[in-house]
Amino acid sequence: MLDAMLTADDVNSDVELQDFCVAMMFAGHDTTLSTMQSVLYWLSKQPAVIAERRQEVLAEWDGSSQLIRETLGKVPKAKPKVRAFLQEVWTPPVTIINRNLEEEAVIDGYLVPKGWTVSFAAALVGQKVEQPSEFRMGRYLDPSGHFVDQTFEPWIYGVFGGGTRMCMGYKFARDEMLVFMVQLLRHFSFTVTSAQAIKFPLYYWRVSGTFFSNGV
């Protein structure tokens, strides 16, 4: 992406290039880091979930062989609750998304003039699900226990956005989080000593704690 930006013919200024680099860092690093902390927070609140997810990972990976895509594919398919857990706790990290209209648009039947700024509260999308304040992995499992992927349901699961501006790195981000979960559950135990709900500029749980090696 950076190579494409540096060689593009339509880059208007160094300021635009700087803005792009900041956006790349923000989207690819800060959002993943905040999500990892939220995962630790929710795991600490659900001891039974930790035990169950750990058994799922132990069944699919010995902890010493190379962690390859085939291994990652086994975890969500054979043990779908790992992916359901991630989808339940993975909230949109960016609270509000603003867009300046370069031309007038009709939104929900209202004509919005050119030049106006439209704000979308991405962090509130998850409030549309049933009982949003409760931890319920089951909402992402069908009656037979199979994982229900909501990635492309932006009005229910807006983590990666939707439409033509959907996050182009969503597959990479999902793999990152799955690797994190697999490594964490296979090799470590942890305690969370403090947690603080952060709502701006990113929406997540900031945690402090201690990690312990499981010795495996």
TrEMBL record:
Belongs to the cytochrome P450 family. This is Cytochrome P450. Heme binds at residue 167. Its cofactor is heme. CDD domains: cytochrome_P450. Keywords: Heme, Iron, Metal-binding, Monooxygenase, Oxidoreductase. Gene3D superfamilies: Cytochrome P450 (1.10.630.10).
